[in-house]
Amino acid sequence: MLAVGCIIGLPSVAQAQDLYFSQPYATRLHTNPAFAGLLDDYSVSLNYRNQFPTLAGTFQTSQLAADYRMRNQRSAVGFLLNYDRTGSVGYTRFEVGGLYAYHTRLTEYISLSAGLQASYGNQRVSYGNLVFGDQLSDEGLTGNPTAETLDVAPVNYLTIGVGGLLYTERFWIGAAAHHLNQPDLGFETQTKLPMRLNLNTGYKHYFVRTSTPIRTREISLTGTASYTRQGGSQRAEVGLYGTVSPITLGAVYRGMPLPGAPQPQQIIAAIAGISTGVFRFGYSYDVSLSDFSADLGGAHELSVSVRNFDRIEDAWRRLRHRNFKAIPTPAF
To answer: Tell me: domain 44-140+152-319, CATH 2.40.160.40, correct?
Structure first.
């Protein structure tokens, strides 16, 4: 989220930050463009996050994502739209972009995916919800316009990102760099969107895994770890997901102490998901372990996706040795 201090112009140098999701694998295209086409032949997902719901100006984020794996299995394309807003401050940020990923098999068991993302962004501040001192009197609001200079004009920008994933049937490790060009967001103070670096990894242990032309059954346990750095902010987290088809339950601990970094906010995100037919549904709630964050009300997050995997086409690919194994990340 963009810092409130950046919006009202308090610091001499300000930096914006990207939105954050507690379900990184339900919003995988936002995490790393190399995820495009790695789970399904195609998918469309909608995600919504409401952070600090007890505040009058709650932080709300909506995301629409889609990806399509081409018949050659080596290429995939994607689409990503983010809309981020704060109610009382009147700040909104809109981004829409395209993704491309290329998949290849390094060995019989190890595969690699590399991705590229380019997005157009628009950022603006609406002053309609703000009240300034010269609009107040002893009786309350005067109804007169403010004499303050309101010169934060809407800004358009282009941002570029890249990512890569190395994975097997049970393990993956990935790295992504967003905002490589660090676009200027155009506030009165020179404000740039700093580069966002992300590292994530995980391992899945299968207790049961069976697949038929009609149904896939899985009982598994997946451990994950992630590190994100953007500007002067760092975040480290670990997670554990358990799947008994069609239900997935998980918990992510965010706020692991890092050497040389200030003590972060301690948060546990409780996650639940279900997969039924072509639909997937997910819900998570951030439970704060600190008094300050707890007073703000945590965060609710919802995800809904429609996905398709053509089993007949997959059987044909197997006969021709053209199929790629799906990455073992949690999915719901």
So the answer is: yes
Give kind and range of the element (H or E) at residue 217. Answer: strand 216-230
CB 196 within 8 A of CB 33: no
DSSP 296: H
Cβ neighbours for 157, distance < 8 A, ≥ 6 positions apart = 120, 121, 122, 123, 183, 184, 185, 186, 193
- 31 backbone dihedrals φ, ψ, rounded to 5°: -75, -45
Angle subtended at Cα 251 by Cα 248 and Cα 252, rounded to the nearest 5 degrees: 130
The amino acid sitting at 265 is: Q
Q: Which helix (H) or strand (E) holds 316?
A: helix 311-319
CB burial readout 164-189, b (16+ within 10 A) else e: bbbbbeeebebbbebbeeebebbbee
Which residues, other chains included, contact 82 with Cβ-Cβ below 8 Å and sequence gap of 6+?
19, 30, 61, 62, 63, 93, 94, 95, 96
**Taking residues 116-130, what's their average pLDDT?**
80
d(CA 291, CA 230) in angstroms, rounded, equals 25
Candidates 208, 234, 204; CA nearest to 331 is 204
Q: Are 88 and 61 in contact (CB under 8 A)?
A: no
pLDDT in tens, 87-105: 655 678 899 999 999 999 9
For the chain, give the longest Cα–Cα distance.
81
pLDDT in tens, 276-300: 888 999 999 998 887 655 556 678 9
Cα 245 to chain centroid, rounded = 24
Give 290's strand partners: none
Kind and range of the H or E run holding 268: strand 267-276
pTM of the model: 0.82
Q: Give the domain ranges of the chain.
A: 44-140+152-319
